[in-house]
Amino acid sequence: MRTEEMVCIMCPLGCHLTVREENGEITVTGNRCPRGVEYGRQELTEPLRILTSSVLVEHGELPLVSVKTNKPIPRKLIMQVMEILKNTRIEAPVRVGDVIINNILNTGADIIATRNVERIDVA
Amino acid sequence: MVEKSVDVLVIGAGAAGLGAAIGAAREGVNEVVIVERDERSGGILNQCIHNGFGLHYFREELSGPEYAERVKKIVHQYPNINVKVEQYVHQIDYRRKEVVVASTEGITVYKPKSLVVATGARERPMGGILVPGTRPAGVFTAGVAQRFVNLENRLPGKRAIIVGSGDIGLIMARRLTLEGVEVVAVVERMPYPGGLERNIRQCLKDFNIPLYLSHTVVGIYGKERLEEVVIAQLDENYKPIPGTEKKFKVDTLVLSVGLIPQSTLFKDFLKIDPWTKGIVTSSSGRSSLNWIFAAGNCTVIYDLVDWVTEEGSVAGKFAAMYVKSNWEPAKFFIEKGQNVGILFPAWYEEGTNLNLYLRVKKPIPEGTIRVKQRNNLIYSKKHLNMLPSEMLSIKIPESKIGSGDITVEVLE
Asked: Which of A47, A53, A115 is closest, CB to CB, to B178?
């Protein structure tokens, strides 16, 4: 049997969870919503995180467009994904929700834009 | 100089100001103008590219820019809302009800029937923590570092220490780490963290960044650029304990020691809390002057932007009601009872729902939040794990509230 105390990160409420594993069965207590059960189970087996960062934009009103993974990805892949984002450049304009990288590192998650960046053409 | 009459004028196009404009437009007034100092609307949300916004207001987890885009979309549904950027409020003549605004168009004197103040907050500066040593380059507030990294594509340095464990500090610890800056420590003078527990987990523990509780900075050294920061442990009276010093070779210090409501423009004519600097308001968002309303971080520092937008909408709605019918009901005091540190709002106005926001004075593992009006208990609920760093929100519908002063307490 394995027991872990953890704080749910699914929302800013931060419920204190107790996650127990016994004979392959995981039970979660202390949660105030079903998302806590999901989180506790996942955190004990393979922690997942949404990654937010930014990507360089050419000809944009801003030099960067903010991005995120549209689904949580394994925590252990975060620095690898960051390396890919660092070497990515896209052209303005960008719209919220635009897919910038499909199925990053075969996680099933896409990197999507989280803001609009208008195009500015310099003569 | 141009004079312009308007129904509702909103100062600030961040989460509160946009919410206020929506609230006023929904209530049905002719014209709502928002004046914004920055070159775009959205306020601080534009640089908060991390996740965690919108779960209450949009029932979906969004990043800051996404949240701003959603709110702007609602604003655009109302043709009578006019958002004007790069506008600087120069002066307010509260007797003549005039707001003087400077912009590239020149000077505009607005004559609003009601005003909503949504000016947000500033970061507490370095001077606020009185650290001995030299004053080299490389010391930034967290918001400035965030603006550099997330909007301007610049890194503040290579090796950083973060002072203050508020949410912005924790989020910047992660952000800098992701961008290749080595974050050697987060230092917090209190015995518990200042930010949300989820951020301790996903911003510090995920990246093995050490958190030093009950520690403070006792020295900052460097000739031109920051070279060394010395920290020490604090005793129970918050005095550094000799012999506990630790030295860190860093070129960057990021300061996240709290926010202060931006209320100085109004200090001569509105009631301001002398301790928090927040504009004192009632449950309708009304300030101490009947035609001026205020909402968001210029009134009290919130944990969630969702609450800011919601309270913005409340203030906007009642500002519009004041325009339409000079609405001004009786008001009652809301007082702090035991264990209550921060309490908002200060007055209850009859006919409104009461959205209370509070912070406990000290950590309370198990307690009961009670709201009394005279001798009637109008709200009582058990609550676990209450921390000063986590704001509590309580909604009491109008139907449960009568007349008389109100007290809010937390029993252990």
From this structure: A53
Reported ipTM: 0.90
| Per-residue pLDDT at A14 | 78
Instruction: Produce one character per residue of B175-188: b if its CB has 16 or more CB atoms within 10 Å, e if not.
Output: bbbbbebebbbbbb
Q: What is the mean pLDDT of residues B1-15?
A: 97
Mean predicted confidence (pLDDT) in B398-407: 94
A75 domain residue, yes or no: yes
Please measure the distance between the N-terminal and C-terminal CA atoms of chain B and give it in whole angstroms: 59
Domain count, chain B: 3
Nearest CA in chain A to B151: A64
**Closest-CA residue to B403 (of B328, B332, B329, B327):** B332
Q: For residues B8 and B4, what is the distance between their CA atoms, to the nearest angstrom?
A: 12
Burial of B373 (0-12, 13-18, 19+ CB in 10 A): buried
User: Is residue B153 within 8 angstroms of chain A, CB to CB?
Assistant: yes
Q: What is the pLDDT of residue B150?
A: 96
Task: Say whether residue A66 is in contact with chain B using an 8 A CB cutoff.
Answer: yes
Is B384–A64 a contact, with Cβ atoms under 8 angstroms apart? Answer: no
Residue B315 shares a structural domain with residue B305: yes
Please indicate if any CB of chain B lies within 8 Å of the CB of A120: no
**Which whole number is the average pLDDT over B315-333?**
95
Total domain count, chain A: 2
B106-159 pLDDT, tens per residue? 999 999 999 999 999 999 886 655 677 778 899 999 999 999 999 999 999 999
Interface of B with A in 161-200 (CB under 8 A): 178-179, 196-198, 200
Regarding whether B93 and B37 lie in a shared domain, the answer is: yes
Which of B292, B312, B328 terminates a domain? The answer is: B328
Cis peptide upstream of residue B136 (ω within 30 degrees of 0)? no
Sequential DSSP letters for B219-251 = EEE-SSB--EEEEEEB-TTSPBPTT--EEEE-S
Give yes or no: residues B188 and B78 share one domain.
no
CA atoms within 13 A on the CB side of B30: 8
Q: Which residues of A touch B63 (CB under 8 A)?
A: 52, 66, 68, 114
